[in-house]
Amino acid sequence: MTQKNPYTISFGKIPTKFLSRNFIIDSICEQFRSDDPDEQAFKLTGIRGTGKTVTLTAIERNLQDDENWIIVGLRSDSEVITELVARLYSSVPLITDFVDVNLNLSAFGIGVNVSKKSPVASISYALEVLLKEIKKRGKRLLITIDEAHKTKGMIDFIQEFQILIRKELPLFVVVAGLYEDIEALENTDGMTFFLRATKYEMTPLNMTYIREDYKKTLNVSFEEAEKMAFMTKGYAYAYQTLGKYMWDEKAKSLTPDVLRAFDNVLSEKVYRKIWSELAPKDKWFLKFIASKDSMSASQLLEETKATHSEWSVPRRRLSEKGIIDVGTRGVISLRLPRFKEFIDSYGE
Length: 348
Known about the structure:
With about 350 residues, this protein is α/β, with parallel strands linked by helices. Helix content is about 55%, strand content about 10%. It contains 16 helices and eight strands. The radius of gyration is 24 Å and the shape is globular.
């Protein structure tokens, strides 16, 4: 029987082999489990393919076996509060029974309306009543929202969340999204609470862990595993992709076929989308940056004949999107693996 490939290139699916963001997962879950949590909301952010969805799923799994937790995943493009109440009613028996007896949610198309009470006029009020019942039962409610972006439903939910936690209700949330989408929510008027919530960036995976995983799982030499690890630059999706095609090829060293498949998947699944969303000026600067492994800011300005002010905005955008690394003062390099090769082949 053929052994299943332990790596996957399906977005959001937890593969058999993956390098967990243990620090982030443990920090959030420990805070949520605290008798008196200091924070009830967290944000996960990063570029596509850095493991936001997998980390969000791991947080859910960490808590789901605890009978004191109710976990609901929602979409930001829905009427979030209404969707939350509907999901609680349809999937949590204690809430179903409570609503049928105590609340008339017919105005929102929720429930069988066996209650003789007048219809509830506010869905926010209904959520508050349900949370009080959840608290009374000694339980907590975790809401997870993946691919979050700025919508009316999302804004309404976050603003309501601020009110509910001031009333010491057991509501917790983890939101995952791209840099620009999380930033758009943070900068919305009336979202000070969300701005201040702790934000975890999906930084590159540990190179030593990647090397040791490749060495053990693919049975390659230390030198080859190290070469492969550095090729991924710690980018989570690249780690999975390279592992998958090395496994499929049963290769003990990088082959042209593996490298070709690696480049093709990164291009089609991630890089073309990233490139299409960049401003023309950002693309223009990137073509110069990609000409070398790294360069100084002064060298970039000399080659582009640009001023510091012309470079400052693209620099901030490209850095925040996780495309360039400017962590070393005055030095610029690409953070994404084989992105230079992508720009050379596809960059317009």
